[in-house]
């Protein structure tokens, strides 16, 4: 292995001194969005093309240096943060921002990994098409990061996770080769599906540099409603009624505890809750392809039926786009309200929809036994069984004392998830946050198969060490708080 000075010079020769960052210039890339992990790196490099990514990767492979791919650095599991050893090079893909092609006949667009999700949505809209992936962080997260974590979001119910929205990929391998798999095909049954292998791999198998994405027709009208509910059981029943009544037009069904929305309006007084306080709320979105009048008529018919059946307590239907955005803003502000209030213990879990109500009742009770007075900030994508099941400290407990119980809380929450046939990560990935937890809930055979794939595609163990699989890194990042 050559010296750090030699490596930095080699990287500078390939992409220019302005894009090889060290010292204070590199610092913003070394701490994750939640400020939970802070690592160290020999350098942060910012290649401007796939060819430059390949050149950097080949250089690191030649020097035996591990790499950490990074997109918008908005991840929630520490997957894009280097460990504390300082051996790695962080490869930021933020300069890869080109939208290479939009094919409206094929309903596809090809974009580079550093494109901000919101910009991709707008480019599709400018072409009279919809790219439906929608996340609270869409103004800063990148397509590459969305693919690396198989991000979900608010419209998975209708359109699926990022995996279902990607038809092809371009990937730089651990030895610096470029795999061009940018095919805009819905059917391609020619062997192993390499695309699906890289999506969701969190940068541990290769670096995604571009993708060909699915597009859809823009809806003629979008209707939004906020519904007050007595229980999670009623939320599940309303979801079933809504699926039957709206079919594929139901594009969003978010559930939020009353405590969650009370926190939002308390932390952000400029926002208001348009319904009286209730134990639970649901936010519904329906996209109609005929007309606004047709969409609203269907919306009112289904929700009036739910009211008559005493399934819901109250309903407010957005009268216009601005009101609809205000309702969504309440939902999207929950995480920000949590951050404004203080540190909390977060979970991103999925449970079969038929088991969610029982899961919430059971786990809420277990956590009250563990930490009396703790508050559950529960919200998420009920339509696909994904809950952000978060815990906030009791008012009588100090923040350090609360965070000291973090792993006790993890054990309760994750064991309950496992008992209800669920998953400890629905859309945020494993990263380093849940790497060790994975061993508890995956079978030995599953772990062995994942290891074989990792060893086959990354035999030198250079890709994102210490993430997803135990034993792939030389050290762990420093925990700085939740």
TrEMBL record:
Pfam families: FAD-oxidase_C, FAD_binding_4
BP GO terms, sorted: respiratory electron transport chain
Highest taxon in the source lineage: Bacteria
Keywords: FAD, Flavoprotein
Names of required cofactors: FAD
Family: Belongs to the FAD-binding oxidoreductase/transferase type 4 family.
PANTHER family from the UniProt entry: BLL6224 PROTEIN, D-2-HYDROXYGLUTARATE DEHYDROGENASE, MITOCHONDRIAL
Entry protein name: FAD/FMN-containing dehydrogenase
Native source species: Pigmentiphaga litoralis
